[in-house]
Specification:
With 253 residues, this protein is an alpha/beta fold. The chain has 8 helices and 7 strands, in the order βαβαβαβαβαβαααβ. The chain has a 7-stranded parallel sheet, sandwiched between helices.
Length: 253
């Protein structure tokens, strides 16, 4: 497979950074997208050291024009667009009583509308290729206190499956990756929230979350990036409309 361009959103840290570095190892050029421009530049530099071209663009993906803006930049890059990895997202816990309209809208804007805008804008640039949406086990099952987050991820997974059918004959695949708890900055915030509400220290809070997986552990960003790498490869051409879990067997579907 010859080298092309891959868009990665939420690329400034955590899972997005791991994906960007893995894609760079494949030899693809990168268009990295995030709100955090300074951190994004550092990741672009890391990718460049691997030997690829990495362009960064600081964009608020919740804005209606964000999809067309990213697609315009992607279309101007030297190598043709091959893939879009929608990784940017948010997760905020709240009881139903405190899950107001603003919280619902915030989750839907970033976790659902933003990737939909990007897919709508970027698919015309793809004669073939890959769309990968980073979802969550919360797209496959429910958890207490995250109804807004779970709803937004369920929506994205539903769209992924529908689009896989819509574009199956055009050699354009749509898949979702559904990780359990992954060791990222967002995970650290989750631990802090648990500690503030329950009084558990950090190790005890982490153990509580690790026990959700039959493997009894928290997962690493590189594990998600490895699955992205596989889905970007020629050997994954026949895989579309799937939700690939990285959760140690927590959710069987």
């Amino acid at each position: 497979m010859y080298q092309r361009t891959v868009i990665v959103t939420g690329a400034s840290r955590g899972i997005g950074r791991a994906i960007a570095l893995q894609v760079a190892q494949m030899g693809h050029d990168l268009l990295l997208v995030s709100r955090d421009g300074s951190s994004l530049e550092k990741v672009a530099g890391e990718c460049a050291q691997i030997g690829v071209s990495a362009q960064s663009i600081s964009v608020d993906l919740t804005q209606p024009e964000s999809g067309s803006l990213v697609a315009k930049v992607a279309g101007s890059m030297k190598k043709p667009l091959w893939a879009l990895v929608n990784n940017a997202g948010m997760a905020q816990s709240a009881t139903l009583e405190k899950t107001g309209d603003e919280l619902l809208k915030a989750h839907m804007e970033l976790n659902f509308y933003a990737p939909m805008r990007l897919m709508r804008a970027c698919v015309p640039l793809l004669r073939e290729g890959r769309i990968i949406n980073i979802c969550s086990t919360a797209a496959l099952t429910g958890y207490p206190y995250v109804s807004a987050y779970a709803a937004s991820k369920h929506a994205l997974l539903g769209a992924t499956r529908s689009l896989a059918r819509e574009f199956a004959a055009k050699d354009l695949t749509f898949n979702a990756i559904c990780p359990g708890y992954v060791r990222t900055e967002m995970f650290e915030q989750t631990l802090a929230n648990i500690g503030s509400k329950t009084g558990l220290d950090k190790p005890a809070a982490e153990q509580k979350l690790a026990k959700l997986s039959p493997q009894g552990r928290v997962f690493e960003p590189a594990e998600v990036a490895n699955v992205v790498r596989f889905l970007l490869g020629d050997e994954a051409r026949g895989i579309t409309g799937q939700a690939l879990s990285i959760d140690g067997g927590e959710v069987q579907h």
